């Protein structure tokens, strides 16, 4: 379980590294998702994706731990749109740098799952709480291939 999740994270980081490098996001190509190696993220993610709980109580505990880890990950990593939404649901403008990093993350995932960053956005945009100015920048990049 530990090894399988570690390999998954390394594969994801490699795919995002390739996309970041191609976009000139050199520093982020190395630093992307480093927080996933912290125990408070790594262990809950590992259990969520690769573990088999022994009973419903453990399943509930693991789910709660995963939810906390996901929140920590969003708060630690500005390339997630959720980082830019406050507790009241107000969204703030993402800088161009973090929008590009978010797209590199989506492109990295697409390398593994066979779709595109645009596909991911089109499928999920209705569930995203993005500031209107962020949407303008994001869609200019995604739909007009300026990266």
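Sequence proposed for the structure above (147 residues):
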């Amino acid at each position: 379980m530990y090894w399988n999740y570690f390999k998954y994270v390394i594969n994801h980081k490699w795919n995002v590294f390739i996309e970041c490098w191609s976009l000139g996001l050199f520093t982020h190509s190395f630093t992307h998702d480093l927080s996933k190696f912290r125990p408070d993220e790594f262990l809950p993610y590992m259990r969520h994706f690769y573990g088999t709980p022994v009973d419903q109580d453990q399943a509930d505990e693991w789910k709660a731990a995963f939810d906390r880890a996901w929140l920590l990950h969003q708060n630690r990593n500005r390339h997630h749109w959720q980082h830019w939404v406050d507790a009241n649901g107000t969204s703030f403008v993402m800088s161009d740098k973090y929008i590009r990093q978010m797209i590199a993350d989506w492109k990295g995932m697409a390398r593994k799952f066979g779709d595109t960053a645009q596909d991911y956005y089109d499928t999920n945009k209705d569930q995203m709480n993005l500031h209107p100015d962020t949407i303008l920048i994001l869609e200019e990049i995604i739909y007009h291939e300026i990266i």
